[in-house]
Write a structure and sequence with these properties.
mainly alpha; seven-stranded mixed beta sheet; 28 helices; 7 strands; AB_hydrolase_fold
């Protein structure tokens, strides 16, 4: 990135650091040698997203990451503070249901399928010797009683909950504990239309700690309910001892009370962003996980009480649990959609004028404000697929072809049967998109020929360029895909819930007595869905295992994390850690301390996701420091992805304010780039920021400068374009006359060294994938 093999780290650590060329390491002490010449620096942050192999395990936390994204996708609004808080509250409640769903799936596997059904059946226990000591026919087996088997099996989901708590706490300490610059919000900053400039935005310690306590307690309470429910049901039917019935009532009341406290903690006001909040919540919140763990221990003791006449038959009452979770998620997602629509309608549909040939700026908001609810629905679907996939797979592994086990809850089978119809809808949608892309390619071929009028035409070359442009335009169709997928998922989920509740049986058997075609279709959907959901889960685990061993695959996952983990954990504490809570303070501290020490100015440039980090860091500067910064972005998703999907934080008002408050800003993009695009500021600001689309390839045919065919660069290689050096020099020339002379003392704080800081995205150098960052100073 620095175009020099000899680099030195001037600040930072092995996780994220700023580098310079060895010849520029002491540039501040030799201002005369660098006057009028920028000193390049490189900020490298790839280890925050795709460092060691353990990052591949973050794939298992994908539903939590997706619901956290939904929190930040709320529409832009004016006023409506209570409605904004209600939006965040509903997203946090959906996140809580995902935690309960994950732990309930673990309970289904460990308690129901393994300890209750398989270990309670002689034929199944014989096939799995490791379950032999739990079998009722074991000679004098102390663990053979159902309650004791459940208590022992409960250690697995309890350990999973503890592991999630540990990972959340450890990753916060490693990534997000870096404090931003302590400052007060100045009145001048009220012009911002984004929360990213608030002093406490990138420090969510209090909220993450509160949610971590609540979700950990919810996990332990879920395990306690799974262990104790069957014992309570047995005691109430068999007329057990009065002491056990009294204890059962006390435990049930305590469980309900704990659940109420957990929901109350989650419903409390979310983030404090107007100041750097270093405080933590009170004793009740901090001790909530330990209280839930103590309750789980008491419940395990209660379930392990000797009940000689108790035998395990059928399945545990999991249908009601999974059905209640699915119903709650559906209702909350619908409520979230209503709230999002109310927020969206509070602003005009078009702000300012549209860019040349474009659409009104605000009309580009993804799905007309419903992106957050749609993504929340997808998070719920991912959680259901993962829970259903592991349940189906374990049930098939334990039972094999024996047919001695009842199997997982009926609702999971109905949900599996909904997968084939969803895939059919998606295939039709992708076929339509393929046809649209083919038609667009034909139109782009004419555009490419016009762009290279007068040059010898090469049909193959033209077709390749047009195809690249048409494929790059598919990014703008993402809202349509997400909208249709989430809507169909919601409808099929509702149908599965109704079918499971109405028939109480799996789809194939529920259709018996009807037309043979209906029955056959139900059997086919059930079998194919179960196979697909198991295959999907195996593929998911295989991908994670490959990424664990293969750095190239891990870098691919790192690109996914670039967007998914950019945002703080405001909705789910078990989501992968937010790398921006380390990277943004790093950049802000570097820029602020450099400008204060030298009095100089700098150009902050960024590629791809690096341009988002650059904008976020610029927002965190004081207005007086922000006016000393120039921005150069290229391949930037600031408007194309972030402006559309996160309009409350990267909408037209926020980007326009950023353009007004930095010294200057130029943006480069290509029509062949599937990620980067124009910033599309309204009014006359647009042409001031966006340069006309760069030529790609640089040469259509063979020329004196390009005797060999020039490649189609797409999202990468922006610095190879002469336009990059031209725009960079223009920004430096604009800043250079105002750089004051060196101070009299001539120490490290001497002035006169121009600055240019460049943060790269997913096409970083040095062999690192798109999480590398660069900066030139």
């Amino acid at each position: 990135m620095l175009n020099d093999p000899r680099t030195v780290r001037i600040t930072g650590d092995g996780t994220a650091a700023v580098y310079r060329r060895a010849d520029d390491a002491d540039a501040e002490r030799r201002p005369g040698d660098h006057r009028g010449t920028p000193v390049p620096e490189a900020y490298v942050w790839c280890n925050l997203t795709s460092g060691n192999g353990a990052r591949a395990l973050w794939l298992l936390l994908l539903p939590f990451m997706v619901i956290n994204l939904a929190h930040w996708m709320r529409p832009a609004t004016r006023g409506r503070k209570r409605t904004v808080r209600l939006y965040g509250l509903l997203v946090r409640l959906i996140g809580l249901t995902l935690t309960v769903l994950l732990v309930a799936a673990a309970c289904e596997v460990a308690l129901d399928l393994a300890a209750w059904q398989c270990a309670g059946t002689h034929a199944c226990a014989e096939k799995h010797s490791w379950l032999g000591f739990l079998s009722p026919v074991a000679s004098g087996g102390w663990w053979s009683q159902p309650g004791r088997r459940l208590a022992l099996a409960a250690l697995a989901p309890a350990a999973l909950t503890g592991l999630l708590w540990y990972l959340s706490h450890r990753t916060w300490s490693a990534y997000e504990s870096q404090q931003p610059i302590s400052r007060r919000a100045e009145p001048e900053e009220e012009t911002h239309r984004t929360a990213l400039g608030r002093p406490g935005f990138w420090y969510g310690r209090r909220l993450v700690a509160r949610l971590r306590a609540a979700h950990t307690a919810a996990g332990f309470l879920t395990v306690a309910a799974a262990v104790g429910a069957s014992a309570v049901r047995h005691d109430s039917r068999a007329g057990g001892p009065a002491a056990l019935q009294w204890l059962a009532g006390l435990l049930a009341a305590t469980l309900v009370g704990g659940a109420v406290v957990v929901v109350w903690v989650v419903c409390r006001r979310g983030r404090t962003e107007n100041r750097l909040d270093r405080e933590l919540d009170g004793t009740l919140v901090r001790r909530l996980p330990r209280g839930a763990l103590a309750l789980l221990a008491l419940t395990m003791l209660y379930a392990g009480w000797s009940r000689p006449g108790w035998h395990s038959t059928g399945r545990l009452p999991g249908d009601m649990t999974f059905g209640g979770i699915a119903l709650t998620q559906g209702l909350v997602v619908i409520a979230l959609g209503v709230v999002a629509r109310v927020l969206y309608r509070t602003l005009p549909q078009a702000v300012g004028s549209a860019p040349a040939g474009g659409t009104p700026t605000e009309a580009r908001t993804a799905m007309r404000g419903l992106a957050g609810p749609a993504v929340a629905m997808l998070a719920c679907a991912l959680g259901s697929v993962m829970s259903g996939g592991i349940s189906q797979r374990v049930a098939d592994w334990l039972d094999g072809s024996g047919g001695v086990m009842t199997g997982p809850p009926v609702l999971l089978t109905w949900q599996a049967s909904a997968i084939p119809p969803l895939l059919i809808v998606l295939l039709v949608l992708f076929a339509w998109l393929a046809r649209r892309t083919w038609l667009l390619r034909r139109a782009e071929m004419d555009a490419v020929e016009r762009d290279h009028h007068g040059e010898p035409q090469d049909t193959t070359r033209t077709r390749r360029i047009a195809s690249t442009r048409a494929m790059a335009a598919l990014t703008d169709r993402a809202p349509l895909v997400v909208g249709i997928t989430s809507t169909v998922t919601l409808l099929l989920g509702a149908a599965a819930l109704v079918g499971a509740a109405a028939t109480g049986d799996v789809p194939g058997r529920a259709a018996r007595g009807t037309y043979s075609f209906v029955q056959g279709s139900a059997d086919t959907a059930q079998g194919l869905g179960s196979w697909l959901i198991s295959f999907g889960f195996i593929l998911f685990v295989t991908w994670g295992r490959r990424a664990y061993k293969d750095p190239a695959a891990r870098r691919t996952i790192g690109i996914l994390w670039d967007v998914g983990t950019f945002w703080p954990r405001a909705a789910h504490p078990f989501a992968p850690p937010c790398y921006a809570e380390r990277a943004v303070p790093d950049l802000t501290w570097r820029m602020a301390t450099w400008t204060r020490a030298t009095g100089g100015r700098l150009v902050l440039s960024g590629h791809s996701q690096g341009s988002v980090l650059a904008a976020a860091a610029a927002w965190q500067l004081k207005p007086s420091e922000r006016r000393r910064v120039g921005l150069l972005t290229y391949g930037s998703p600031l408007e194309r992805l972030y402006g559309r999907w996160f309009p409350a934080h990267f909408g037209p008002a926020a980007l326009s304010a950023l353009h007004r408050e930095v010294d200057c800003w130029r943006n480069l993009y290509r029509l062949t780039d599937p990620i980067g695009g124009p910033v599309r500021l309204p009014g006359d600001c647009g042409p001031q920021v966006d340069r006309a689309p760069l030529r790609d390839p640089l040469a259509y045919g063979r020329t004196e400068e390009h005797p060999l065919p020039a490649p189609i660069l797409g999202h990468g290689g922006y610095q190879a374009d002469p336009a990059f050096a031209e725009e960079r020099e223009r920004l430096l020339a604009r800043l250079r006359p105002d750089v004051p002379g060196p101070r009299a003392r001539g120490a490290a704080g001497d002035q006169g060294v121009g600055g240019d800081q460049d943060v790269g995205g997913d096409q970083g150098g040095a062999g690192d994938q798109g999480s590398s960052g660069r900066s030139s100073g």
